[in-house]
Amino acid sequence: MENRIDIKSLNLEELTQLFEDMGEKGFRAKQVYQWLHVKQEDSFDEMTNLSKALREKLKERCFITSLVQEQVQISKQDGTRKYLFCLEDGNVIESVLMRYKHGNSVCISSQVGCRMGCRFCASTLDGLVRNLRPSEMLDQIYKIGKDIGERISNVVVMGTGEPLDNYDNLVKFIQLLTNEDGLNISQRNLTVSTCGIVPRILQLAECRFSITLALSLHASSQKKRLELMPVANKYDIREVVDACKTYFEKTGRRVTFEYSLVGNVNDTKEDAEELCHLIQGMNCHVNLIPVNPIKERDYVQSNAQRIEAFKEMLEKNRITVTVRREMGRDIDGACGQLRRRYMNSHEK
Questions:
Q1: Phi and psi based region of residue 40 (left: phi greater than 0; alpha: psi -120 to 50; beta: remaining)
Q2: Are 126 and 113 a contacting pair, CB within 8 Å?
Q3: Among 74, 215, 266, 328, who pairs with 333 as Cys (CB 3.0-4.6 Å)?
């Protein structure tokens, strides 16, 4: 495959250029684009409005990325579905479907593994294997939509991997996902989560997308953030928050701060006060997340009283805050858990 083109990762302009290079009419590009991104076809043979000769030519020059569903776990509590997909090189990634009143939301992975090393996350325990191509990010959404036979209306890039560590592929993915000739998901219905790679946040701001940026903050001081997130060695907490302010100024989109509450680590009254001071006056939203315990680390979830007290402190300071509803807790709901269990079982 290394010499063939990943056709599902091409935007319409690139696809049109490919057809012209092949001596074909440019309008064929739009037909193929719709086969790939609207009908979500995985085989050139099914593209019935193309001649057989053109289909053969495409097979020689290109390949269509198609993930294989290896496992699906369905929560008995809330219908959340956790998918394990196999890539063509044998690697596995996971994605999650969450059903809400406002529609179906899919959480996708952006990398195989992760190198960010956040202390409470299972995704990062085995390091980074490789980046996902735009097609591999898209196909998680396409395959889940096909599996349930319903439209996906919201996408969050919050699964395994650091999206801004795979920046170019991420930007291409956003353009493909929100293109009116493809799945045409509104940019406003797309959230990208980052642990805080400052130069990339500023670069993304310049794209002027209407997406929501979610920053994994998880601490209210530089000292505590260093304990939880190695990325803090490179970028100070104030530098990251300033980058989020710039993101809002450039895009007009308020930033979401993700804050995983870890029992007796970052959930005290002092932590809440520090957080209020850090983000006071910002147009932002804080999402408090009762942390999912993972057996490789000894972190525990904050108790209900601590969570409520933390939330009340933020509200008192006029900061918009919600506590994330736990979904899929009975099916390895946290990022990286299902993939890790699968990998461990296949090593034995």
A1: left
A2: yes
A3: 328
What 3-state DSSP class applies to 188? helix
Pairing of strands 103-108, 255-261: unpaired
Q: Is 118 annotated in the active site?
A: no
Residue keyed to tokens 């969050």? 156
The amino acid that residue 125 corresponds to is L
Q: Which residues of the chain have pLDDT under 50?
A: 348
Sign of CA pseudo-dihedral 173, 179, 181, 183:
positive
Helical residues (DSSP H) of 178-229, grouped into ranges: 198-206, 222-228
pTM summary value = 0.92
DSSP 8-state assignment for residue 120? T
Q: Which amino acid is at 334?
A: A
Residues forming beta bridges with residue 137, ordered by sequence position: none
In the chain, DSSP assigns E strands to 5-6, 62-63, 68-74, 81-86, 92-100, 103-108, 111-113, 128-131, 154-157, 190-194, 212-216, 255-261, 284-290, 320-323
Q: In what order do the strands lie in the sheet with 284-290?
A: 68-74, 81-86, 92-100, 103-108, 154-157, 190-194, 212-216, 255-261, 284-290, 320-323
Name the active-site residue from 24, 41, 94, 162.
94
Tell me which H or E stretch contains 65: none
114 in active site? no
